[in-house]
Amino acid sequence: MGDNPSNERQARELVPLPPEEQKLVWELVSKTAPNGKATASHQSMLTIKNTGQEIIETNFWRTEHARRGVFYLSVNAGAFRLLVPQAHESALAEFRTAQDVIISRGPWTAQGGRDALEILFDDGSSDPYALHLDAKQLDRIPATDDAGKDFVFTAWTWAGKPICVFRHDCHYRIVPSLPWLKPRD
Questions:
Q1: So what's the pLDDT on residue 98?
Q2: DSSP readout, the chain?
Q3: Beta pairing class for 79-83 and 150-158
Q4: How far apart are CA 124 and CA 115, in angstroms?
């Protein structure tokens, strides 16, 4: 693959982006394309470049999911990293009230028992803020062996690059069903 898209379909995906982002996205597509060939599905695939727990680059905020307000959770190097779409940045105020962050995994009853996660921002009140994410909103499900362990939880927004706007210790557990909405045992 070259420095530029080789056909109109590849170029069309880049048009909505500012020129500097077009170059960055095409570099990521070029580096990660299977067999060196960018397909439409690969080009629209979510990518995240990491340095340990930090997110250096991602195309998340340019995806249709982000535009529709869908959260995404990435797990890397002992950290749960929540990518917050612009439509939900106001929720950050709720995150900041947390005395404890608990991530619970279990079958989501309202969604037919599908595997899901609950992120509980326990503020000590009877009505804490929580997010429920389908397993499709994660890049990987933590291992069963990780239950009962402590991790780092971070929340990320976009300001021309990924910015970590919230960091807190968190606890990971497996529960019988979601929603669970209970503080740490």
A1: 98
A2: --SS-SSHHHHHHHTTS-HHHHHHHHHHHHHH-GGG---HHHHTS--EEEETTEEEEE-GGGSHHHHTT--EEEEETTEEEEEPPGGGGGGHHHHTT-SEEEEEEEEEGGGTTEEEEEEEEE-SSSS-EEEEEEGGGBS-PPPGGGTT-EEEEEEEEESSSEEEEEEEEEEEEE-SSB-------
A3: parallel
A4: 27
Average pLDDT per consecutive 10 residues, the chain (185 residues; last block may be shorter): 68 63 64 61 75 96 92 97 97 97 97 96 97 94 95 97 98 98 93
Domain ranges of the chain: 71-174
- In angstroms, the CA 23 to CA 168 distance is 34
Place of tokens 């706007």: 165
Q: What is the pTM of this model?
A: 0.79
Going by C-alpha positions, the residue among 130, 154, 150, 172 that lies closest to residue 82 is: 154
The Cα 135–Cα 137 span in angstroms is 5
CA distance 107 to 115: 5
Residue 118, token pair as written in the block:
């609950």
Q: Which residues pair with 82 in a beta bridge?
A: 73, 155
Instruction: In whole angstroms, give the CA distance from residue 101 to residue 131.
Output: 11
Q: What is the pLDDT of residue 64?
A: 87
